[in-house]
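Morning!

This is the sequence you dropped in the shared folder:
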Amino acid sequence: MTTALLSTAEELHARVRRGRRAVVMTMGALHEGHATLIRSARGIAGPDGEVVVTVFVNPLQFGAGEDLDRYPRTLDADLELAGRAGADAVFAPSVDEVYPGGQPQVRVSAGPMGERLEGASRPGHFDGMLTVVAKLLHLTRPDVALFGQKDAQQLALIRRMVRDLNFGVEIVAVPTVREEDGLALSSRNRYLSPDERRTALALSRALFAGRDRHAAQEALRARAREVPSTHARAEALSAIGESRAAADAHAVATAAPGGPAAVRAAALQVLDEAARLDPPLRLDYLALVDPADFTEIGDDFTGEAVLAVAARVGSTRLIDNLPLTFGAAS
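The structure's back. Tokens below.
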């Protein structure tokens, strides 16, 4: 299959549409994570539909001192990867095509949700991101747009924008793709030296530690709920390695042992150890949040949550996250 390279909206709009159009938005420097998004888009669009990959390094979402100038531009390689993954077209507009007449005077505001976590670390980033996503949705006119779960706050804000502003498009999330050592795939990984990469693995290890603590808690609580209200409670808890001093299964079941605080503590322990490595990991934030608004969850929280982390290793800033489910919703 030949993948068309388009640089103007006029070229894109001239294409004949027969089935569903699925769009994957990127800033280029494509890797296997993007390929997974494109393959997912191909599956959704089907053989009669169309998959369009956008490649645009958006200046609005880079703050002062960030890496706009050194952000990798690899359009030829991007076109090849997109074609292999199943894209029909790559839409790679110029800055003038997306922002004719200069930077837009009217922009989309991310609101309070966009001021937390990534928004606090990168002021204005989400306003720029939402503005370009809104423009690219209008320019590409998709039926469905796919985004990676790795950028969880971005995904949540796009979903809110589409819902709050009545965009007629379906938003689909695709799980994070990881390398064999657990590091989340990112275009910025190429900036890491071998020593920095070893330190950077602490991000995913911290998330996995929090996830494992959470899984152990949920398993213990589920087991406790199954134990009859008899002396067998103590025996059952002892059988799974718990101290008989804490063998009241009813208390375990109702107290959600450890809860979000224990998950945060398990992840922080790994990050604290990484801060003493050479080179060190410099933590920006670790947060356990409600994906509806990205506020921290309390110890009595039940439902879907996101454990998110951001840190710098050398001059490279990395983010990662894992979804978790607490309490009755699990």
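Headline: Strands lie at 4-6, 21-26, 50-55, 89-91, 144-148, 170-174, 281-290, 295-296, 303-313, 316-326.

More detail when I'm at my desk.
O.
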